[in-house]
Amino acid sequence: MRIEILGTPFNGLGSPPDIENPADGLRQAGLLPVLASRGHAVNDLGDLSGFLFREIRDPETGIKDFGVWIDLSTSLSRECEAILSRGAFPLLLGGDCSMLVGILSAFAQRDTDVGLIFLDGHADFHSPETSPSGDPADMELSIVTGRGPRGITHVAGKFPLLKEEDIVVYGIRAWDQIAASNIRVYDRHRMAERGIKSVVEEGLAHFTRRELPLWLHFDVDVIDPSLMPVMFPESGGLSFEETHEFLRLVWASGRIAGMSVACYHPALDADGSAGSRLATLIADVLSSRA
Question: What predicted TM-score, i.e. pTM, was given to this entire model?
Fold first, then answer.
């Protein structure tokens, strides 16, 4: 498979990449050579750059770095669309989940429908009013379903970017207001109760169009913090083995059009062991049979 990798600068703290770069952390963990060793042709496009984060709430919207989020989403949309146009598989290494707005905007620019498989420890469905921090990564899932300031909900000229029935959420321990929506949710408890294979099959069948391509979003804080050090830990997460099983089953659907990986923090992974396991996990999944 031809894979093109792009890093995005948001990292959950608004820190610039020269302080902490999650995408570079995964590069240092060996992601590219592991992918190449599995027979993939890998092209590293580097990172989006030139964005200055001030961690200041916009007085009108209540969202931190609101203008930067719009600019970053626009740039990311352009880059992701170019990857898709080249017929490559986009593997986007984030900072944080706010990059989903730019990713999904790329499909809007192509006038292509897409669904979303969202694997995360948090639902990220806050509004600017309910978010304790005002961080874009608290609210991107509500934004892509049309809730929030027009400047970001209409950033791609399509409203909403996604319909609620075209999203399935997995693994959450923090609900973040998502119960107020009609989005299909399999939280960590339900996954354990029903079994991973069962909830993947049921979730895939939930999409109203069986041929709909899907974007796979993987926030690593879905993994238990005893195994994956993260900035906002929630206890009781998935094991690496459970995460591998989930991702492999989703990948086996043959419908995944691209993948984003968010919230790996190399600064918290002192010996690099979690990053190495994560790099191997990603390569294993993308190399399994669809």
Answer: 0.96
